[in-house]
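batch job 7 of whatever, protein = O-methyltransferase C-terminal domain-containing protein
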Amino acid sequence: MAAEAQQLTVPTEAELLQGQADLWRHSLYYMTSMAFQCAVKLGVPTTIHSLGGAASLPYRLTPVSWLLLDSVAVDGHPNQTPIVLAATSRHCIEAAMGLSDWFQKDVVASPFEDLHGVTLFDGSMAEQDPEIDAVFNDALASHDNSGFLTVLRECGGALFQGLESLTDCCGGDGTTARAVVEAFPQIKCTVLDLPKVIDNVPADGVVNYVAGDMFKSVPPAQAVLIKLVLHHWSDEDCVKILAQCKKAIPSREEGGKVIVIDIVVDSSSGPTHEAELLMDVAMMVMTNGRQRDETDWSEIFTKAGFSDYKLLKKLGARGVFDVYP
Ligand SMILES: C[S@@+](CC[C@H](N)C(=O)[O-])C[C@H]1O[C@@H](n2cnc3c(N)ncnc32)[C@H](O)[C@@H]1O
């Protein structure tokens, strides 16, 4: 033991000082979230915007601030304030604080469900605490509805040109489906979601809304779109969901495909990669899902019975896949 210890190389003084700074950073990262939450709650981005983009304090509108402005949707990105409020809420932070206890238990429930006794987005939370349920639902909507105009611009032609029909699986209030129909009016669009969601969506004459359960069946169409859904689910559940999507489409020769839009973790370093990894931990804390790299996605597609796929584009952290039966 003593001989082994002698072989250890003790860090230099400079390395130890750097180590101390790193330790502070790792321990205090949550202060970034708290200071950020404070600025959002105080409406700092909107105030700077109303002052013409600059203020007497040394602040200016950064791209992040543009995403946080009241009543200004830049390039179709809805205001992202609800995500900040949900991610920095007591519910999330307390669930993350329980991570080490959770690792030592043998439970299927996520740390969030284990601690709070409710699951995100399934109605149980609405019964327990309607106020925080509304915060999380707003966060989900602002997250999921952002960036789709970019998808349409960058790969709308490859994805939707020539399609006759499309089912948006877990399509919520139809925001995405309506954007598809606006860009490609020939497509007959159906939205599948749970009854509690569909029952509250007014008929719009543009999209057909179907209440159901994707684990049981998905309304048939030439293509099924499943956007920012699968990262909420375990690998086993993803295989079940995709198998139902596959049943809903015709053969590849007849144009059948599933369009998967979801986070694809890449191997580069940098802020986007760091965000992907943080989102992975967030999924572990709050759901049974995770973020996946391309190899993980490929394995899931194969297990669900698909023969091939194409990663058409990576837009920020999101990947756009065509998956073929
Ligand atoms: C993460 S959101 C989907 C986001 C949406 N695709 C978008 O990009 O805007 C999750 C949605 O899945 C729906 N959902 C959850 N479980 C479902 C199920 N078993 N069958 C159908 N929809 C379900 C929820 O009601 C919610 O609207």
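notes: The radius of gyration is 22 Å.
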